[in-house]
Amino acid sequence: MPDMLRGITIDDVTTRDMDDAIWVEVTENGGWHVAVMIADVAKVVPKNSELDRFAVSRVETRYYANGNSPMLPRRLADGKLSLWPGEAKYVLVVDIILSKDLSILETRLLRAAMTSEAKLAFSDIPRILSDREHPQHALIKLISQLTSGLLMQRRSHGALAFYDLGRGLVTNEEGSVQQLRFREDTIGYVIIQELMILANMAVAEYAVKNDIPILFRNHMARSATPERGDLLKLLESMAFIPEINIAAVRHTAYMMLNRAEYGPVILGHFGLNLGAYTHFTSPIRRYADLVNHQQIRAYIRNESLPHSKEEIQAIASYINMRHLENDRAKSEYMKEKAYKEAESAILGNRIEDASDTDFERITKFLIRKGEDCPEAYCDAFLKRLGKLPIICAGLVLLQAPDGERWTELKRALMEEIATAPHKAVSVFDIAQHMPGWQMPVYEVTETARGNLPVFTAMSTVRAGDREYRSAAYEDLTKKGAMQQASAGLLATILGLPTPEMKIKIADSPASKEEIKINTSKDPIVALQEYCQAKKLPLPAYSFEMEGSTNKPVFTCTCTFGSSTSTGQAGKKQRAKRLAARAMIYTLVSGS
């Protein structure tokens, strides 16, 4: 056996099929030397062998709540091939030299021997990083520094990457949001995902340069997918929204993206924003990776390639078809399971105490039945009204059948939306994932009242074979006027009374001389002087930030007595000034 390489594995705490190990060092010129070492599965599982046919029949390892169904026999997956600590194993190494700015300077693929020094779990990483005495502390700290840089670089290059350490939220390669079982797993997950993405990208580029037919991993955008910047903003909004609304954002992001597929040619990867990508780092768990190992292993050993490009095409089609079948079966299983749980909750009078997720399932179940909802559900719905996940509101407004109690809930929802018209926009976002709906079109005009601008918005939409139009709505901001128009449009579509929006614009606010506010001054100063003159408490300002750190959007809320106003801008002071100006207008107009 040749000279032994060093490595460690980081996986889920229950993992027994460790097929990748990592090692990182700093180079003399301040760059990085990265080694991603993957079990040499192709040596044991060559093309057309009995084990290869077994793997083809499984396509991938399937994971369940209480175990897994391995792609390869367990004696190999968990034993002979797995990179257990202290056991010398042959590996295929993706050996990468990075510059200081994390550009790839050189990629080598070679066969070597490796002994893992430690089997670490994702949940171990935070503790190791805080314990300087831990034997792996220095290595993990170094790897963490590198992968933080890789993540930042990917995000700056437009990848759909987001991680929330506090909530355990992560994005996968396609940009879909997942919730880890344990929040303390997040840093370890980020470390491994960043290094695996780096290795897979390097192998894809290596295969292209050396004309090696492999299975590329392609991810295409849908025709209706928003601009990349808007998708990134949606993902980043999860850092600021209440936890109860995360499920709706996850669902929205998921519906915007196609599923990735395998193919013999490079079509690009939208989620990662890469020209070429592949899967190479999990040959114990995925047949696509094993096929790529068979190809790369033969190439670096100067042997005939086991698969032609035509065979790669056939394998890609087969794997894609099996994935689709598995996803459909899983979806049907989960749907039926959810409906049974929902029916059980209804029969057991457990609706009121149901979690948000269970309440959504109950809502879908009752809508699917096509009957009026039971009184117990109606009562529970009304009690949740102010804190109801928007997905439930959207389902009831858009899909609930006719019925006295369903109509009562729709009326209540529209009254609640009248106080928070931005929710109507979210309902229309949900509608985009249902057949026959289009995005609303807005007509916005701007006029002036005194020293302040006023925006007027109308909205139209086609749903099915009909076109609906809202009334005209005025607001101090363009966004506010559009939100109100959305709420009015929603009421029109549902055949419900148009909601009273609570915001009225007076015709001549500047003519009311009895309110002595100097509108020619900076709004913040003018409002403060008004309060001091009237011996009133000063207004309170609060801020929320959304968007990326390099392009934030601040929303300032001004609270004065029982009134509130908001302003939104790229800088906090600008947002505060707009909120103060809106409050002044409210006071001057007497609304």
Extended strand count: 19
**Uncertain stretches of 5 or more adjacent residues:** 503-515
For the sheet with most strands, the description reads: 5 strands, mixed
Overall geometry: globular
> Termini separation (Å)?
84 Å
Spatial sequence of strands, sheet with the most strands? 1-7-6-3-2
Q: Whole-number radius of gyration?
A: 29 Å
Mean pLDDT: 87
SS-based structural class?
alpha+beta
What order do the helices and strands come in, and which of them pair?
Layout: E1 4-11, E2 20-26, E3 32-39, H1 41-44, H2 50-58, E4 62-64, E5 67-69, H3 74-80, E6 88-98, E7 104-121, H4 125-130, H5 137-156, E8 163-164, E9 169-171, E10 177-179, H6 186-209, E11 216-218, H7 228-236, H8 246-255, E12 261-263, H9 287-300, H10 309-347, H11 356-369, H12 375-383, H13 390-399, H14 404-419, H15 422-431, E13 441-449, E14 452-463, E15 466-469, E16 473-475, H16 478-494, H17 523-534, E17 540-548, E18 551-560, E19 563-569, H18 572-589
Helix pairs in contact: 5-6, 10-11, 11-13, 12-14, 13-15, 14-16, 15-16, 17-18
